[in-house]
Hints:
The model has no long low-confidence stretch (mean pLDDT 95). This protein has a single domain, classed as Arginase, Chain A (3-Layer(aba) Sandwich). Strands 4-1-5-10-9-6-7-8 form an eight-stranded parallel sheet, sandwiched between helices. Helix 2 crosses helix 3. By secondary structure, it is of the alpha/beta class. 30% of the residues lie in helices and 18% in strands. Helix 4 links the parallel strand 6 and strand 7.
Amino acid sequence: MANTYDSGRLNLPFVGISTFGKRPYVEDWSKINADVAVMGAPYDFGTQFRAGARFGPRAVREASTLFSFGHAGAYDHEDDCTYLPQSVRIVDIGDADIVHTDTARSHANIRAGVEAILAAGALPVVIGGDHSVNIPIIQAFEGHGDIHILQIDAHLDFVDERHGVKVGHGSPMRRAAEKSYVKGITAVGIRNVSSTAKDGYDAARKMGDDILSVRQVRALGAEGVAARIPKGARVYVTIDIDGFCPSIAPGTGTPSHGGFLYYEVLELLQQVARNHEVVGIDLVEVAPDYDPSQSTQILAAQVLLNFLGFIFHAKGFS
Length: 318
């Protein structure tokens, strides 16, 4: 007979099934009833260098169990509040079906998952996968109002076409900027040898991209960067794990030194959650096999859970 406690089974991080944050699993996408729905997009055919991000969703889910203690949410003594109380309903809907070597069908399945989440009125959180999974995610927002994208990344990802390919992981922000409902992009962390040539940078600025390096972000501070996002904009946040310095996030396909540290990103996300409606999130490019310490996926899970805490605290959940 299973042991029970005042609040149910203890359900420690190292037991049970690794859903995101050990939240309930919803297999039927027509029955999503939640504030947040987490979906994996284990697709990495868009990579140009080191593959392995297909295992990102599984690794981030496993890491997220570390933060599944406590049934009453997470108390933050600095902010003197409890984040992610039980009143915030989070579910894990599993992974979009990926068809090996078939980009079109795989992307279509990712889009269908996000469409199902939006139809249910939940906040979509997608764990990649390489950054090309952002392309079908943004496509799913068609008909759901205008959005502004906050991109946290080492690379601009504004390539129009490379070797005939328009949907690789170097192109998602170019494809997003082409959408009439994407009204602008704030790209932060862009640095060093990027994925985009000068003509891509010129096109990005012409198409409404505000580009900031790590050093520029540090000079402005979190409040200064958040203030550059248009007032009243509904914000979609895409986080490439290589936006962080590989000294703390080596588990990625294209590491780039000189990136952000944890609190630099966290404080920016907190400012955005306070000032704007956040309508969707993806976190991509975690390739766990390159980090035997597992720190990269732990960082990814911690960022997502904290960001969700900020979003719903700003909405008045307690």
